[in-house]
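Hey, can you fold this one?
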Amino acid sequence: MNIRLTFMLATIATAPLLLFMFGIKVFVVYALIWIDKILIGVIRPARFVGIETTTTASIIMAIFYGPAVSFFSVLFLFTFLQSIRYFIFPLRPPDYPLFVPNKDSIIYAAGAALAGILNLYDFATIMIIVLVFKSFIYGITDFLVQKKPDFFITFGGTVIIHVIFFLPIGVQIMNHLK
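Sure. Predicted structure:
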């Protein structure tokens, strides 16, 4: 069997196992991160304008399981699925070692922890605060480390895309999971 297909099937087969072992909430979080890291992750223009579902997944995880569990869960799932993507698709190798948390996974995990701390607020408020936090951290790191000032474009796109599309989706998911 093709190794790429094997990795793809293994990541898909993980979803029902998580559903059986941990329930619908963890399954939904995994599915959203899987969609982001495996499907959306290979489309560069989608990433640039802010189309991603990991923020929604991390907020859902944080609301139900708190800051510590969401931090480590998002850190692990993000790092694992982002690394697996390079085995499934013929992509240019990343600038970081696979299966080791990188800047992106740490920022998303920190956003998840922040969402867990803010879990008394409504979903929309949490999402906006987490998006601003993540965008600020990305902006600082991109500007200081990589000298890329394009985070203003991606920040605007990310907030607009999330408010229009992912906020209503996240609210609907939360209503069904409660």
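The chain has a mean pLDDT of 87. Let me know if you want another pass with a different chain boundary.
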